[in-house]
Specification:
alpha+beta; Alpha-Beta Plaits
Length: about 300
Amino acid sequence: MEQVKLDNKRILFNLLPAHVAQHFLTSNPRSMDLYYQSYSQVGVMFASIPNFNDFYIELDGNNMGVECLRLLNEIIADFDELMEKDFYKDLEKIKTIGSTYMAAVGLVPTTGAKARKCISAHLSTLADFAIEMFDVLDEINYQSYNDFVLRVGINVGPVVAGVIGARRPQYDIWGNTVNVASRMDSTGVPGRIQVTEEVHRLLRRRAYRFSCRGKVSVKGKGEMLTYFLEGRTDGNGPQTRPLSSERRTCLYGRAGLQTGLATGCPRVGAGPGALQGSGLAPQPPGPHLPPAAAGKEA
């Protein structure tokens, strides 16, 4: 009986964030009250593989699509394994939707000055995770002779988190912040990490390199100024496997990406690292991402 309780507890902690699982373990099991928690600042990421649908096909030779799903499971499982790193302990996987991976940071209850102090550090962790996801997918491409491309969107802001359902309860997050994060993915560019202006504001002084994409039409929001996260400008953060230039170019080229800089980008001021005039090219992107399209460094 004791072993059954331990197994049930392990399953519960695998389905729900630790603080949520603990709430249900200590609450009245007959209570049907809705569990929810509001947060003022949460980083939300959607990472999709837009060309997976083109890959999926049902044939006798691939067990009517099962082998395609087996590969998708391997990709998602490798993303899960990446999140198990101690460096990413503050991240929470929310769910997968088809070939889209949804994660968030900042969902452990904090209050006051501590919460305000943590958000840029939390966002930094989420950004590093997104960057390293490209390495994980590239390794799978290398081993399976595929050319899957990752497209990522990140936003930050208030959300409501809760558990819905009595059978197979689902932990999820809701709010405009989540919707915009999803739009950052869907309106993004394969091979790039698109972020909102607020994410750029919080991370631009934390050793990250950005290029301004410009104004993008976002459903329900109108025109939004967005940025591409190109990588880190230092050697800190998690250790990631560097990609050779040949493989970066090959993957980027197969995706056929041509990205122009939209209008509406703020002018780059003078200062260390600023681009002044057309005589200086932007810094090359870090080893994690495909070569970036020419643009203004933000």
